[in-house]
Amino acid sequence: MTKSIDTSRREFLRNASALSLAGSIGAPFALNLFAMNAAASTLTSDYKALVCLYLAGGNDSANMVVATDTPSWTTYQAARGGSIALPLANLLPIVPTTAKVDAVGTRSFALHPNMALLQTLFDAGRAAVIANVGTLIVPIADKVAYNDSTILKPSNLFSHSDQTTQWLSTDPAKPIYGWGGRMEDNLKSSNSKQNFSSISMTGNTAFLAGETINQYQVNSNGSAVAIGGMTNLFGTNSPLQTIITNTAAGNIFEKDHAAIVQRAIAAQADLNTVMLATTSVAAPTQYMAYYNYLSNNPIATQLQTVARIIAGQTTLGAHRQIFFVNVSGFDTHNGQLAAQGDLMARLAHAMSYFDGVLATLPVGDMRNNVTLFTASDFGRTFASNGSGTDHGWGGHHFVVGGAVKGKEIYGEFPQTAVSNSATGVDNPRDIGSGSLIPNLSVDQYAGTLAKWFGLSPTEIAAVFPNLANFPVQDLGFMA
Fold this sequence. Notes:
The chain is of the alpha/beta class. The protein has one domain: Alkaline Phosphatase, subunit A, CATH 3.40.720. It has 13 helices and 16 strands. The strands form four sheets. Strands 1, 7, 8, 9, 12, 13, 14, 15 and 16 form a nine-stranded mixed sheet that branches. Strand 10 (287-288) and strand 11 form a beta hairpin. The chain starts with 6 loop residues before the first helix and ends in a 16-residue tail after the last helix. Mean pLDDT is 88; it is low at 1-43.
């Protein structure tokens, strides 16, 4: 595949970047405005954004996407018991365009009862399920292969911190750099203001840490994380402020520090301009909580800010952007039915809101240009521990957007059974309590997104070094 950004375009945007930086430190505003206006005609049509929605704590995806065919439902009830099993009558059926037929037979599926809004997106072909994804170095066919000490496996499985690091990095040689940041390392020159290439809604994240690109952090309401005390504490003409913003200083460290501060001040001003200009972007309505009352949704609030920043793409000189949105609460060792029920309602509401608001942005309908995908530490055990579940491995994920080949379930949907020698049940991918070996690797999942995003095959191979170990490198869920 060839990259969509040709050399001449890259050169033009580099020049625009130089003009923009000059404008932020005193060049004529009209010259800077000219550069942004010249880029505006092409930025929107070729703009792309990825939005990572991270489900922190390890989401129990076995109650999010449920296999409902008779063999699967029988083993589901046996494993989950009366404490966390969902009633079949309450589940929301989804029918993938391509029938799933395997050793179990013809499979049927449904979503959590609180995800009606996501069911609508799926049925409309705007959402897809990627089944049983997890951290892998090489394919692991079954538990026999898992127990083979010669086959490479991710380190410290079932650890929140270790599996989060491996999900967000994928490169064991560079664990401090995320695959989102490393993708932007390759594409940052297409953004005339590189500060806004990688944007986190929830503080510093390894996912957006690049080797050459720095992530930009904003609050959920769109306020930049400002430099404290620059005006109130020191005063605009104080000697200290003069020192830390003096780019003409003689000392090289002082000069570099001042340049960084100047860029941060200019970036904050740019973002404030965008937020003031996008107040017309519709705010999310309240969603129906698990306990049947209306509630505000912090996930949707974060996604509203993402949408407003996307709407300001021309002002921000953006061509390729990656966003990180985080939601906690998925470590459901107990009280899972209530806790996860509310989280599922929030997720469905937020993803539906985001899809809708992208259609009505001031820059036009951006749904085909923006892809949202979920990620999580790991899946959870299929077996119940009483009122919850424990740390597992593979799990299911959603991809949502106009470029998604939706109304499909990609990958092999696993058996919903916990091995039990007493009853003769044997699930070859169950390594204990229904912790399932992933069928698909994070590298395959992420590499498919990277190809759509515009990385060349060479760049994808560099960002995801384990991808070469898998026979299928493009899962086919992106147009």
